[in-house]
Amino acid sequence: MNWYLLFKFLHVVFAAAWIGGMFVAFVLHVKLARAADAPALEAAAQNGIVIGRSVIGPAAGLTLITGAVAMWLGHLGFAFWIVWGLAAMVVSMALGATLARRSLEALLARLATEGAADPEVEGLRRRLSMLQALLLLILVSTVWVMVFKPVL
Fold first, then answer.
1. Rounded to the nearest 10 degrees, what angle do helices 119-148 and 80-94 cross at?
2. Which of 27, 28, 106, 120 has the most CB within a 10 Å radius?
């Protein structure tokens, strides 16, 4: 058995789960941006939190671990595409774990106290949609860099 190929395979599987989870979160946030009533908004926001905690977060962490092991086993060094992947991972994990999560929690709190008609709810919905689109773009750009391996 080739351990490098095994960890490379696992890295790709976890990256696919991470991107798939981000895509589902993005779709939820688009739905969230269009929802008019508080129960629909709350359900979409709760689902976003669950997806983040149960799919996106663990998949991101396992992507990092399996990628690092594959990098070590393959003696790959720090090529541009690896640096891009690491930077994208740090940025996306930081944005997702801080801004997106906090915005979701603030949205849920605002919905519980003020309802769906609150102007701040609209701002939070827009912020979440923009953050999710940015996070998805970062991850898709990383897949492109990993596949095409451009050289500077």
1. 160
2. 28
- Going through the chain in order, the beta strands assigned E by DSSP cover none
Q: Residues 52, 101: contact at Cβ < 8 Å? A: yes
CB 32 within 8 A of CB 128: yes
Q: Has residue 60 got a pLDDT over 90?
A: yes
The pTM of this model reads 0.86
Task: Specify the DSSP class assigned to residue 118.
Answer: -
User: What single-letter amino acid sits at 21?
Assistant: G
Q: What is the C-alpha to C-alpha distance for residues 50 and 56, in angstroms, rounded to an integer?
A: 9
Cα–Cα distance for residue pair 55/51, rounded to 1 Å: 5
Higher pLDDT, 136 or 97: 136
- The number of residues making up the chain comes to 152
Q: Which two tokens stand for residue 94?
A: 């930081």
